[in-house]
């Protein structure tokens, strides 16, 4: 069997956006099971890669509301705009009729089942493959396991107890009598990564030439670390993060501001990102995500005709004041896209004045885009903002061509530091060294003898507005007071979002679980 090389990212994404649209439609119908490919000739083993690419496509193809359901809780962000269900969730009032909760469950499970379908197809190809093809098939199956784990991990963070599919056969869910706990799901994910790691490439994702940015051994190690962090198994966290660090393959992107923009795509910092592309063309096919919910609902863009956002996702005043009090510069400028109304609110409610605020606290970014929003959100997420001068000419959608980073090396370092402070052992790097690498990139002074509180604060500064990481940290650590802010009251029983009524109707066992 020949090793199929997809040499350019644009070629890969073109497959995702065009050739595999029909394939992904089928992947959304797991009941087809082994008949998915119809008349597919599985003896054509060179085609095995297309089953894997179909899994990549479906996992990256997230609706706009799904990342917001995952991310919009915690003291780093506020839900804004006209989505009442999202605003209720942000205040820990869970509505079992909120469409976002329903689509998160349905689409994530559809894509998890699709990953199993892809793995089963690959196994059928392997029946006809030579030794080289079998080795490649094992790698592809391992990659699909990792992609599946990304979705299952986020589902369990949001809902707690969730089902664990083990095949594409929907009959497995008939008459279920129990639902695995969050701890059981996290242990399952950790075990799955142990199964996958031996078959994965020992490369940084951006070193891959077949599928640039695709899953590697280090992606799986990061997910294993994340799952064990949720389990509070800090030695396993230190072991997994230590292996990533010891590889010497990863480094922090030097410019924090540009990390979340075009220059940061497939950087040496990124362990996994959802990839999107306009293929360098101002018209025609594109693989995209709808970033409008994160943008200001009115602005004066540097590039005329560039579309504004919807104002649904707003950095919190608490976070902004926390960052100002720390003397943060690069990370605050990057994370928050200020409006003048937001700045006025900041001056009115904090000790800061127009004279004492840093000069970068401005409604106009360094790239010349001006946030003029006065309703819905008065701050926007800078991590989801793409300067209009980085848009490909002809593309006007907010954030078009922007990737969405899920796991990055700075989080690896901070998780490693926390694990050591929590009692784990690992000689690859001290907690001080790990934290100070992250702080140095942010132009912050080094620390000595770092404490858990300092690491928690560092994660707040570094990772806010990213996939709800701050909220999940506070829940794990039992720091509920941090989540009780601005009129909110958080209690332990609010850790998980309520199942949607449609899911309860389909699986009555869910109604018996006290979320």
Notes on the protein architecture:
- With 515 residues, this protein is mostly helical.
- 44% of the residues lie in helices and 5% in strands.
- Helix 3 runs parallel beside helix 7 and helix 4 crosses helix 6.
- The termini are far apart.
- InterPro entries: SusD-like_N, SusD_RagB_dom, TPR-like_helical_dom_sf.
Features:
two-stranded antiparallel ribbon; 5% strand; globular; 8 strands; single chain
Write the layout of secondary structure elements.
Blueprint: H1 9-19, H2 21-27, H3 48-60, H4 65-71, E1 77-79, H5 84-90, H6 99-126, H7 131-159, H8 182-196, H9 217-230, H10 234-246, H11 256-259, E2 270-274, E3 299-300, E4 313-315, H12 317-326, H13 330-335, E5 336-338, H14 340-349, E6 370-371, E7 379-381, E8 404-408, H15 409-421, H16 431-441, H17 452-463, H18 469-477, H19 480-483, H20 501-506
Antiparallel strand pairs: 1-4, 2-8, 3-6, 5-7
Helix pairs in contact: 1-3, 2-3, 3-6, 3-7, 4-6, 6-7, 7-8, 7-9, 8-9, 9-10, 10-15, 15-16, 15-17
Distance between the termini: 50 Å
Order of helices and strands: HHHHEHHHHHHHEEEHHEHEEEHHHHHH
Q: What is the CA-based Rg, rounded?
A: 22 Å
The tally of beta strands, per DSSP, is 8
Task: Give the biggest beta sheet.
Answer: 2 strands, antiparallel
Helical content, roughly?
Answer: 40-55%
Low-pLDDT stretches:
1-37
> How many H/I helices?
20
Strand content: 5-15%
Structural class: mainly alpha
- Shape field: globular
Signal peptide: 1-24
Domain RagB/SusD: 303-482
InterPro entries: SusD-like_N, SusD_RagB_dom, TPR-like_helical_dom_sf
Domain SusD-like N-terminal: 53-200
């Amino acid at each position: 069997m020949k090793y199929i090389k997809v040499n350019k990212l644009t070629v890969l994404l073109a497959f995702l956006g065009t050739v595999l649209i029909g394939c992904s439609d089928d992947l959304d119908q797991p009941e087809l099971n082994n008949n998915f490919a119809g008349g597919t000739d599985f003896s054509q083993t060179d085609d095995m890669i297309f089953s894997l690419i179909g899994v990549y496509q479906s996992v990256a193809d997230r609706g706009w509301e799904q990342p917001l359901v995952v991310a919009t809780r915690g003291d780093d962000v506020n839900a804004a705009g006209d989505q009442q269900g999202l605003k209720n969730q942000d205040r820990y009032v869970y509505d079992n009729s909120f469409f976002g909760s329903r689509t998160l469950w349905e689409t994530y499970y559809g894509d998890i089942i699709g990953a199993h379908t892809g793995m089963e197809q690959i196994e059928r190809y392997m029946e006809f493959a030579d030794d080289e093809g079998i080795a490649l098939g094992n790698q592809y199956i391992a990659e699909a396991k990792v992609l599946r784990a990304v979705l299952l991990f986020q589902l369990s963070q949001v809902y707690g107890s969730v089902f664990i599919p083990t095949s594409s056969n929907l009959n497995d869910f008939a008459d279920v009598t129990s639902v695995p706990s969050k701890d059981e799901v996290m242990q399952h994910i950790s075990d799955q990564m142990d199964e996958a790691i031996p078959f994965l490439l020992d490369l940084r994702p951006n070193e891959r030439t077949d599928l640039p940015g695709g899953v590697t051994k280090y992606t799986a190690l990061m997910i294993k670390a994340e799952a064990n962090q949720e389990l509070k198994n800090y030695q396993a966290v230190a072991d997994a993060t230590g292996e990533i660090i010891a590889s010497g393959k990863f480094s922090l992107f030097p410019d924090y501001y540009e990390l979340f923009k075009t220059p940061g795509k497939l950087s040496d910092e990124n362990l996994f990102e959802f990839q999107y592309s306009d293929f360098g063309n101002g018209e025609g096919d594109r693989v995209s995500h709808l970033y409008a919910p994160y943008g200001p609902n009115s602005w004066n863009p540097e590039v005329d005709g560039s579309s504004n956002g919807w104002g649904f996702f707003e950095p919190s005043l608490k976070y902004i004041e926390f960052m100002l009090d720390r003397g943060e510069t690069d990370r605050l400028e990057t994370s928050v896209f200020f409006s003048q109304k937001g700045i006025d609110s900041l001056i009115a409610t904090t000790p800061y004045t127009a004279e004492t605020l840093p000069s970068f606290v401005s409604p106009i970014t360094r790239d010349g885009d001006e946030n003029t929003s006065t309703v819905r959100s008065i701050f926007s997420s800078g991590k989801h903002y793409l300067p209009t001068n980085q848009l490909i000419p002809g593309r006007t959608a907010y954030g078009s061509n922007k990737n969405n980073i899920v796991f990055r090396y700075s989080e690896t370092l901070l998780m490693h530091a926390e694990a050591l402070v929590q009692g784990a052992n690992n000689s690859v790097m001290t907690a001080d060294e790990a934290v100070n690498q992250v702080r140095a990139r942010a132009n912050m002074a080094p620390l000595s003898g770092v404490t858990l509180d300092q690491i928690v604060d560092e994660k707040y500064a570094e990772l806010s507005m990213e996939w709800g990481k701050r909220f999940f940290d506070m829940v794990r650590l039992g720091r509920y007071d941090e989540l009780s802010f601005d009129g909110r009251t958080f209690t332990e029983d609010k850790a998980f979002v309520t199942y949607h009524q449609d899911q309860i109707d389909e699986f009555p066992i869910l109604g018996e679980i006290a979320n």
